[in-house]
Amino acid sequence: MEHLLRLTDSWDRSRLDGLFRLADAYEHGRGPIREGCAVLFFPDSSVRTRVTFELGVRRMGLTPVTLPPGTLDKPEASGDVASYLAQWADILVVRHPDITVLEKLASCDAMPVVNAMTDANHPCEVLSDLYSLSKIRNIYDLRYLFVGADGNIGRAWQEAAVAFGLDLTQCSPHDLAMPGTAWKGDLLEASSGVDVIITDGPGPFAQELRPFQITPEVLQAAANDVLLNPCPPFIRGREVSADAIAGPAFVGHEFKKALLPVQQAIMATCMNLT
Fold first, then answer.
1. 165 lies in some domain
2. DSSP codes joined into one string, 147-186
3. For residue 183, what are the domain limits?
4. Is the predicted pLDDT of residue 274 greater than 90, yes or no?
5. Co-location of 175 and 247 in the same domain
6. Is residue 43 part of a domain?
7. Residue 82: pLDDT above 90?
8. pLDDT tens readout for residues 85-142
């Protein structure tokens, strides 16, 4: 039994390559299946991650039971919650703002806990993106630029960079920089020669990040075959311009198709189905 809380916990290139092979198997309908139950905690606002987890669970042979994250916000000890649920369920998939809630659920090792997004990080999203990128490029040779504030998406890519040895730079106002990651404050300079540009929504920093919008001019400063990977939900005219999304650099909506097999592979790995 394993948990996925942070990519820096126990992940490396070997484990990532193994996860991708398992995701390939699920993508072609050959992944391991088993009967059981998965308890998922998602808010009503979740769209892509929730749909693909619920669908993936069903295709694996598990019965999904979905509850709101607020169900976990009560005085009962998280270890007791997990231990009771383990009498009927086989895995917990949790989206909750506070990563310490997931840590407490995992600490008793009653069953695997998968991080489906917290305010600290979003490992499933980044693993899915790397899987999609691996289909068209060598992910270990790419130069990645994250344009946005210090937040859960940026920190998830930071974790991936540490775990897998990726070349990652952040571009933002200095006050919004992530500690421990290479940083540049000039967007055109930061974009020069990069292979993948990643964006995130500005959150409360829309005014500060307005000069950091990805436009065709920014993309022209990057590598000739640069890929624009905006983390959804993105807004045209906010972190990315409409013409940047309409151009050839945008990875496309099909890029997120990988969420389904990758999240199945994550759950199978945590449940030791491999």
1. yes
2. ES-SSHHHHHHHHHHHHHT-EEEEES-GGGPPTTSEEES-
3. 123-256
4. no
5. yes
6. yes
7. yes
8. 999 999 999 999 999 999 999 999 999 999 999 999 999 999 999 999 999 999 999 9
C-alpha pair distances (Å), 95 with each of 62, 92, 165, 229: 19, 10, 27, 22
Tell me 88's DSSP state: T
In this structure, is residue 4 part of a structural domain?
no
Amino acid at site 207: Q
Statement to judge: residues 171 and 188 lie in one domain: yes
pTM: 0.97
Same domain for 52 and 40: yes
> Using one digit for the tens of pLDDT, what is the confidence trace for 30-62?
999 999 999 999 999 999 999 999 999 999 999
What the block records as the tokens of 161 is 């960079």
Q: How many domains does the chain have?
A: 2
Cα separation values, 87 from 2, 39, 111, 164, 227, Å? 18, 12, 10, 36, 45
β-bridge pairing 167-171 and 62-67: unpaired
CA distance 28 to 31: 8
Distance of CA 164 to the CA centre of its chain: 15
Identify the CATH number of the domain in which residue 73 sits. Answer: 3.40.50.1370
